[in-house]
Design goal:
138 residues; 2 helices; mainly alpha
């Protein structure tokens, strides 16, 4: 047996759930972008003839909301990238574990084969020695 052990457990990661989560996050981010464009067009139309202090105050509030809205889209996309990166790391780790398992199995088979050869050689020497004793020589 090799002096080391591979990790025999598979990586626990739900790739389907991850893919669905990424799709959902990207979908919501896209909807936010579309809503932003629609809202901007409607706002321009609705406020074309509006002016004064109430308008100035409303513009400031809307600006903050737009910034928050766009930041939310960025956060959703960043979260989707994080999930994708985690899924990639899980796939790589699983592949690495499988390579290590195969290496361990090859080493174990080689050690077993060597032990069998050594046993056969040792058995042959013992047989030859016993034969030599009974026949008077090798």
């Amino acid at each position: 047996m090799p002096s080391w052990q591979p990790n025999w457990a598979d990586v626990r990661f739900d790739h389907l759930a991850a893919a669905l989560a990424v799709d959902a996050l990207i979908s919501v981010a896209r909807r936010l972008e579309v809503q932003h464009e629609v809202r901007a067009a409607l706002t321009a139309q609705a406020t074309a003839e509006w002016s004064g202090p109430g308008y100035d105050r409303w513009v400031e509030i809307r600006r903050r909301l737009v910034v928050e809205h766009l930041q939310l889209g960025s956060v959703l996309r960043a979260d989707a990238r994080t999930i994708e990166d985690t899924a990639l790391r899980a796939r790589r780790e699983q592949a690495n574990r499988e390579v290590e398992r195969e290496a361990w199995l090859r080493e174990s088979a080689a050690e077993t084969a060597m032990a069998a050869v050594a046993g056969a050689i040792a058995g042959g020497v013992v047989v030859a020695a016993v034969a030599g004793v009974t026949t008077g020589g090798y």
